[in-house]
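Troubleshooting: if your tokenizer reports a length mismatch, compare against these two reference records.
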Amino acid sequence: MQKRILVVGSGRVAGPLIDYLLVRGHIVTIATLEAERAIELVAGRPNGTVVHLDLEDEAGLAKLMQGQDGAVSLAPFPFHINVARACLAAGVHLVTTSYVSDEMAALHDEATAKDLLFLNECGLDPGLDHMSAMELFRAVKDAGAEVVSYKSHCGGIPAPEANDNPFGYKFSWSPKGVLVAAKSSARYCEDGKEIVRSEDEVHRHTWTIDVDGIGTLEAYPNRDSMKYEELYGLGHVPTIIRATLRYDGWSRTVAALRTLGLLDEEPVLGEGETWAELTARKAGGGGAGEGAAQEEGAGAAGTDEVRNRAAKFLAIPADDTVLDRLAWLGLFGRDVAGDTGKPPIDALVNRMIERMAYTDDEPDMVVLQDEVIAKFPDGHRERFLSTLICKGEPGGESAMARTVGLPAAVATSMIVEGKIVERGVRIPIEAEIYEPILTALDHAGIRFEEKREKI
């Protein structure tokens, strides 16, 4: 059943999505500023075309939307609403992998009236986490029990064999997106107590979990967990936590970067300012001095001067591993940090891309683990566990691209083929939506391992 689908954007997760839609026989148009990359994604396939689109060009977007059956927005988050409005005007269904904004939610009635489905949060996290959770909740209900605890942990990290830098992290999606997300506050409930963590506190309150086959990972709270009590239809649950997974040490290091002001988005880089000068200035005022501007590695005194200043500012020992990571990244060295007037976060993103990117033969890994504790009428409790571990293919698709792109692709194909009939602005928490998506993903090799045990 061939349909016309507009894909807005061609970033790091677009490959598996576009391939799936083309294999299904749909006519796919990719609208992007990155035409060269997009052309590679459709090479040799006549039902795939690429057009140039500046997302600021709303008239151009509206024109491209005409005649489409569905659209997928892989654009940066602020532009989803523009794509949604173009979909409303043209009568086109929409899928995104991002959280529902207030502006998007406000389109629910209009989308419903126009017989359209705007399915958001249909990627990995958010996306597969919702679907896995709903499956577990249903299993608990079918067993005649009630949910007393729900914890969801998810993260994209290097596969163990590619985990070879001090940060324990490499970028499989937007580096700036990772750092901006790291500045979010969080709210969750644990043992009946509501806990709010400010942006400054999130990475200072972590815990660990053990994942079979992977080992111990670090977790920190992810945004507002409490709103999912209502969205998931749970009512009040004593414990509800959604968290992000990383290897040990990530959170302390991100907290240090934030404290040093290196995640700031104000344009404060001076002309020709080096990393040593920027770090020293952020760590207590003034430049780094003549010594700190010496050659990195050769000018040990200069490097030590900046490192010691950072240690004092962060109130940690000078031999702390956090400072080892900052030194490895070159933040105490003489390289120019970035263009004059640019925000420190942009300079940091560029430096991380240089030193923390995957090579073609290095696999990434996605880990998603949902845990539900159920209480039965006789008082005993059981643990329901659902775990997804997906590794990327060296030289091929990344795990992040597959687990974000394929759920959106499957959903889009099913919507335009008339296999999903829900309407309005939604997320994949209704069985009519998530069940067929999970079934199709299982056939594509993205599957959850489930376990149930008494505790």
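Reference record two:
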Amino acid sequence: MEQSVFEKIYEIVKQIPYGQVATYGQVAALAGNRRWARVVGYALHVNPDPDNIPCYRVVNREGRVSEAFAFGGGNRQVELLKAEGVEFVDGYVDMKRFQWERPVF
């Protein structure tokens, strides 16, 4: 059976290492279509298993957290990332240091 788009997205998000982040566009590209960035946002908003799908590790391309973070708002997302050692500069994730380096094929 072929995976749904959301299932593909969740499989990619599960691979983001502890203490690192990925962008919506990066997750979209790894899931199969660079244009799915908005779909990634929808999928994460309805994350069925937040204990195993770390959607808080996904930020926008500038390193900004989501104000609409589904599991407690932007402040909760910041707390979760900081607990993993992710650092922020002027309210944005330091993408040069903490962006996941997984190659996109």
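Descriptive notes for reference record two:
- Residues 5-15 form the longest helix (11 residues).
- The beta strands are 22-23, 58-59, 88-89, 92-93.
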